[in-house]
Amino acid sequence: MRELAVDLGERSYPIFIGSGVLTAHELLLPHLEQPRAVLVTNETVAPLYLERVTTMLERHAVRVDSVVLPDGEQYKNWQTLEKVYDTLVDTRAERATTLIALGGGVVGDMTGFAAATWQRGAPFVQMPTTLLAQVDSSVGGKTAINHPRGKNMIGAFHQPRAVLIDTDTLATLPLRELRAGLAEVIKYGLIRDAAFFDWLEGHMEALLALEPGPVAFAIERSCRNKAEVVAADETERGERALLNLGHTFGHAIETGTGYVDWLHGEAVAVGMLMAAEVSLRLGWLDEGELARIEGLLIRAGLPVQGPALPVDEMLHWMAGDKKVSGGRLRLVLLQGIGKAVVTADVPPSVLRAAIEARS
Fold first, then answer.
1. Of 151, 244, 294, 358, which residue is the catalytic one?
2. Model's pTM, two decimal places?
3. Is 142 an active-site residue?
C-alpha cells in the first residue's frame, strides 16, 4: 500500500493506493466526522462495489444511505445532481455527514459539488474506480457539473478529506475506459516529468496488461505530480493551469459532440496533439518530439485524430473555455517533452492549422 499527501495546510489530506483499499476501514473511518455517510455511485459501479463498501461501513456502526445515478458524461448536469440533493434531504443528512464518491470522474465531480453546496459545505471522500479518476479528477478538489454549452462550467473548489484508490477496481474497467485514463497519465509526463514520459514509453504494454507493479507506480507518480502542483496553486491562479494540457481542445470536442461519443480521455488525447501541433508551428517542439507523443498515444490505443467538427465550431466552443482571461484564449503548450507553458500569444492562423491537422 502506497501513501502520499496533498499538502494544503489545515485542508491537507492523504491519498492511499493499493489492493483492497475499498474495504480498508482503518483508512476510511478516521475521515468521517460522524458515524453517517451517503454513498454516491452509478448504475455501472453499484452492482460491483456498493454492497461491499456499505457492508464494511455498517460493520463498524456507520449508518449508510446511498444514491445510484445514471452512468455517463451526458448525465453530469443539474437534473442528475438533484437526485443527490433529494437523497440528502430525504435522509436528513447533516452538515457533518460525509458524502462518499464511489465511481469515476463524473460521480466524483458531482459528489464533490454536492458536498461543497450541501448546507454550505459538507465533508466528502473520493473512492475512484476508473484509472482517469484515480490519477486525475479525484485529486485536487475541482468539482463541477456541465452546461450544454460548456464542460465543467458550474462548480466549486472543495477538497476531499481523503482519496482511497483501490487498484483492484481496474480489473472490471472496460478496456476503452482504461485507455482513456492513460491519456491523463501521459499528460503528467508531457507537462513536467520527462523521466516519467520515458518510463511510460518502456512500460505501456505492461500498463495495458494491468501488471500490478507498473500500474501502482504509474498511479502514484501521477498523483504525486498532481499533488505537488495543487499544493503550490490550489485555485489555479498560476502553475495549476498546466494540468489543462489538451483540455481546452478536448472540452470543445466533448461539448461539440454532446458529451456522448467521446470519452474525456479520448478527447484530451487529441487535444494534447492539437496543442503539440501548435507548439510545433511556433518552433517550440520538433518533429521528433511530436512523433514520440503521437506514438505513445497510439500504443495506448488512443485516438490521434478528432471528430469532423468544423474549425469555426471548435473555436466557438473554445472561446467559452474557463481559461479565457480578459477575452483572450490561454492555451497550455509545450516547449519540449516535460516542459509546459501557458500563453495567450498564438496567431489565429497557427491555431486553425493545428486544429485542421488533427480533425
1. 244
2. 0.93
3. yes
| CA atoms of 169 and 166, how far apart (whole Å) | 6
C-alpha cell of residue 64: 449508510
How does pLDDT run across 275-303, given as a tens digit for each residue? Answer: 999 999 999 999 999 999 999 999 999 99
Quick one: angle between helices 194-208 and 287-299, nearest 10?
Answer: 30
How many C-beta neighbours within 10 Å does residue 332 have? 26
Interior/surface letters 208-231, b for 16+ CB within 10 angstroms, e for the rest: beeeeebbbbbbbbbbbbbbbbbb
Give the other-Cβ count within 10 Å of 52's Cβ: 11
Residue among 76, 221, 226, 323 flagged as catalytic: 226
For residue 63, count other CB atoms closer than 10 A to its CB.
13
pLDDT in tens, 24-70: 999 999 999 999 999 999 999 999 999 999 999 999 999 999 999 99
DSSP H helical ranges for 21-117? 25-28, 51-58, 78-90, 105-117
Clarify whether 184 is annotated catalytic.
yes
* Catalytic site residue from 73, 177, 234, 236: 236
Q: Is 192 a catalytic residue?
A: no
Given the residues 31, 36, 76, 142, the one annotated as active site: 142
